[in-house]
Amino acid sequence: MSEIIEPLRGMNDMLPDEARWWNRLETVARHVFSQYGYREMRVPLLERTQLFKRAIGEYTDIVEKEMFTFEDRDGQSVTLRPEATASLMRAAISNGMVHNQRHRVFTIGPMFRGERPQKGRYRQFYQIDAEAFGYDGPDVDAELILVSARIWKLLGISRVRLEINSLGTPESRAEYREALRAYFTAHEAALDADSRRRLVGNPLRILDSKNPDLAALIAAAPLLTDYLDPASREHFDALKARLDAAGIGYTVNPRLVRGLDYYSRTVFEWVTDALGSQNAVCSGGRYDGLVTQLGGEHTPAIGWALGMERVVLLMQELGLEACADLPHAYFVLAGPAAASRGLQLAEEVRDALPALRIETDLTGGGIKAQFKRADKSGAQLAVVIGEDEVARGSAQIKPLRGGGEQQACPFADLAGRLASLIGSAAVDGDGAARQDRGR
RNA sequence: GUGGACGUAGCUCAGCUGGUAGAGCCCCGGAUUGUGAUUCCGGCCGUCGUGGGUUCGAGCCCCAUCGUCCACCCCA
Questions:
Q1: Distance from residue A373 (CA) to nucleotide B27 (C1'), in Å?
Q2: Which residues pair with A382 in a beta bridge?
């Protein structure tokens, strides 16, 4: 045997039991997107490094130290996308979608960031991204938040809280940045090393510090809200009114600044207290200047990204349900003739009841062993087909959970009998269910 | 990138002050003839993360390395 090849740090394999949760989340998200007219878009995972530098900002942590960047065969610098918005907007520009047009889109897929892994933070991680471009009013800001809120609602997620803020225009933000820099420079002695570093690069990020020693100093710092230009303030007030009208609870967090340079005006973040340190499950904001930065015509835009592993973790923590994938019926097939006839019967049942999950025993082993597997599979019913059954043209159906007697069922009635035994809910197709393989 | 904890069978873990490894689960088979989940019996499973070092001897000590987890940082 050769040496076993291990996966890379922070790269995870997703096994079937885990994937059930992801499927549930993705199914719900796709459903909600279709309800609101958001259409799917898929873009490359690999882009020119320059795209991310220009979009996210040269001096952000992501670009400075977290990107997977390397040279391709032609010696050109390429990067595995650390987030989706830049790629999506590049694609929108490349394909002429921003010339006096409006679009609402979403994409689902992996992102890559070379951070030290911990709970809810991995080097390859998955996001669901929603973006709307071509709309400049606060209505679209509200709609995007409603889309995310509806995903929580359908999933049954609680313990998430919405925080919102407005960053204003780049000009008012610059003015505020200088005010902050002046304030913190005056108190530089009280700052920790990280904050001193941020004082030079991006003083707004000091506001995000988790250091309790800095809490008082930060609380007394100038407020972004006081520097907001009138148009941004009006926009923000209108968004709040929309949210109030829709019954979406939120708190205004004047210290919410976000880490990507391209944001302007509205920013928001859904946070949870159930996941430890990585508490942001979905966040985003408006990026009206990005398209121009990427060489397109001025196009207002806004979007959010939802961290799929964080939401899955939250679903599990809250005891919610995943997609059911346990078979409804398990076919026990004893003997060569039965194996062949059984597969054929299973096909007929699948034709008649498309939502039913049927697992056939493919081992050709003894009946006892097959029954053990039938039980282990979690199926509700075992359908037994052996030599006798084939000769008689009638299967035996045995309930494996709860009560009920084993009964004979002519092959011709199999689909109908299974449908009535299993129940219409399951036969019609069920989205989510608790799975108990045992009792 | 910084700090701390950890890394023993497929899984969860035990292994006392160093003397060349155990349990439960899982899996396979059996407890008379075609029926599971309970019970009983039997079987399979390990280069003790990896590489060095100390020692007569290391899973237990030392160093390095890789990985996991938690926090910082960052952010989804």
A1: 12
A2: A330, A398
Residues in chain A: 439
List bases in chain B with any atom under 7 Å of a protein Cβ. Answer: 1-3, 26-30, 34-37, 47, 66-76
| Residue A210 contacts strand B, CB under 7 A | yes
The boundaries of every CATH 3.30.930.10 domain in chain A are: 16-169+229-317
Q: Does domain A326-433 have CATH number 3.40.50.800?
A: yes
For residue A365, say whether its CB is under 7 Å from any atom of strand B: yes
CA distance A382 to A367: 11
Quote the CA–CA distance of A258 and A251 in Å, as a whole number.
16
Of all nucleotides in the shown strands, which has a C1' nearest the CA of A391?
B34
What is the location of CATH 3.40.50.800 in chain A?
326-433
Please report the ipTM that was assigned to this predicted complex.
0.87
Contact between the CB of A341 and strand B at under 7 Å: no
Q: Domain spanning A16-169+229-317: which superfamily?
A: Bira Bifunctional Protein; Domain 2 (3.30.930.10)
CA of A149 to C1' of B59 (A): 52
Tell me how far apart the alpha carbons of residues A295 and A411 are, in angstroms, rounded to a whole number.
66
Beta bridge partners of A399: A381
How far apart (Å, rounded) are the C-alpha atoms in residues A11 and A9? 5
Asked whether strand B has any atom less than 7 Å from the CB of A118, the reply is yes
Mean pLDDT by 10 residues, chain A (439 residues): 76 88 96 98 96 90 90 94 96 94 97 92 96 95 98 95 94 89 89 83 82 85 91 96 97 85 91 88 94 95 96 91 90 91 96 94 87 91 94 94 88 95 64 51
